[in-house]
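Note to self: keep these together.
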Amino acid sequence: MRVLTVAAHPDDEVLGCGGTLALLSEKGAEVHILILGEGVTSRDRKRDPEARRKEIETLRKAAERAAEILKAGAIYFESLPDNRFDALNFLDLVKLVEEYLGRILPQTIFTHFPGDLNLDHVLTARAVLTAARPLPGSPVRRIYAFEVPSSTEWNFTESFRPNAYFDISDTLSRKLEALKCYRQELRDFPHPRSPEGVKILARRRGMETGVSAAEAFVLLRALERPASILFASQLPEKKGEHLELALSWIKEHEGLRLKPYRDTVGKLTIGYGRNLEDVGLSPEEAEVLLRNDLLRCEAELREALGGTYEALSPVRKAVLLDMIYNLGKPRFLGFKRMIAALKAGDFSRAAGEMLDSRWAAQVGRRAQFLAEKMREG
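Structure:
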């Protein structure tokens, strides 16, 4: 599972969902963090990022250290003006978030609560909801809104009413450790953004759900497909306790491996010990993998071709998707004359370049079929 947290400022990601990110990374999720604002220049009456450059860099390094503690796979920074997002063109903000969604292709997004007091938080949430709108083919399956102490609860006109929780009993210590990276942003108790205040909130949310510590969220949107719920229709109704128990044990005993490996008896294996040689995949699982791969391929095409790809007809887009899926990105980019022909709008020449290649000799009819579709459009 790919997870993306979109936060307005450095420290929001730890305050809002640091324990959950640590938990998900432990369970094998691919965790990404995007921080939109520089987080410093609102301290001045007039914004001067150059005068605050050293503080901005210090805060960025703190965020990087915190991400390492949470075991996030990647962290990205923009430099939007702190607490001045309302001075930006909202469409530009949406396009910026869209760019990262197209690159990362997350299934799960964590972001701010749309009813927050802080306007940067509100605009970030709105931009995420707009950029991740449920278009056909979107990989996004669920969007969670988190709370940020000393901001969310201070909007007394709109309450944060959580309907989803993550048990962070085992990762609260990691959240608090990551929070220490932001020493300059912390306050003394009883301020909500004190270490004691953050811990108290986690305990309170835990009491609400019967665990020792939790992070609370408002689930803004969710779409679950059959494959993502373990084909629940095939499981015995109301009698799945033993299955859930076994599931938790197997995850612990096998561990999650996202790339193929050889097990103790030499069998090619992936995931939670799935024996690919003897068991393989079901048609439903293969379909899920293919759709995910196509989304990745389309992101690569958009990055490589930009507006040229967007201007193509659906048929020609499908041709390029078929090609890059078969070739892989590095070999596809080797078709420089074909790409040049596409940019010039000469689809007949592009088809000819497809056929005048070692790839065409290797795949035969596939190349002929795709070249014909490229010509016809």
